[in-house]
Design goal:
By secondary structure, the chain is mainly α. Helices cover 48% and strands 5% of the residues. It contains 7 helices and 2 strands, in the order αααββαααα. The chain has helices spanning 5-19, 27-34, 38-50, 75-83, 107-123, 127-131, 135-141, and strands spanning 54-57, 63-66. The chain has a two-stranded antiparallel ribbon. Strand 1 (54-57) and strand 2 (63-66) form a beta hairpin. Helix 1 (5-19) packs across helix 3 (38-50), helix 1 (5-19) runs antiparallel to helix 4 and helix 2 crosses helix 3. The longest helix has 17 residues, at 107-123. It is elongated and about 55 Å long.
Length: 154
């Protein structure tokens, strides 16, 4: 399974906001720290805000922050939301499936089960698991935080 660039950038944005909890962060801050373009970020940030993962504030003192606590944002939920419009294989693409095996192929069911197993395993991983007590991530994103004991899901 291969995740889209959109999902990768989405997780970078959420991790950056998690590391910098307690303050609004800017798109340019994230772009610099996460090595991505502001154009890609603008689309991702807008979508994450629509999905309820981010709170955004426009204006001179604007920026964004997580709209929910880190321990309530599962990686599986983020991946499902950001990957939902991308079919994993042609046979999952409504109206664009030209595979001649579609009527007799059993691979689609196998792929569907494997994909759901992947998402299910990610459902048990929370943003807090990725961010809290992660000194390496703190060093890269240059704004360490300390999470209260018991916040990270083990």
């Amino acid at each position: 399974m291969r995740l889209t660039k959109r999902s990768n950038i989405s997780m970078r944005v959420l991790m950056y906001c998690g590391v910098n909890a307690g303050r609004l962060v800017t798109k340019s801050d994230i772009a610099e720290a996460c090595n991505t373009s502001e154009n890609h970020l603008a689309q991702v940030i807008n979508r994450l805000a629509q999905l309820g993962f981010l709170y955004t504030q426009r204006g001179r003192n604007g920026g964004m922050r997580l709209s929910r606590p880190m321990e309530e944002i599962s990686v599986g939920e983020v991946f499902r939301a950001t990957e939902a419009s991308v079919p994993i294989t042609e046979c999952f693409a409504d109206g664009e499936n030209t595979c001649p095996l579609v009527e007799a192929c059993r691979l689609k069911d196998v792929i569907a089960r494997a994909t759901e197993a992947f998402y299910a395993s990610m459902d048990g991983v929370y943003l807090s698991d990725l961010v809290c007590e992660n000194a390496g991530l703190d060093a890269i994103l240059a704004s360490p935080i300390s999470c209260p004991q018991g916040m990270a899901h083990a």
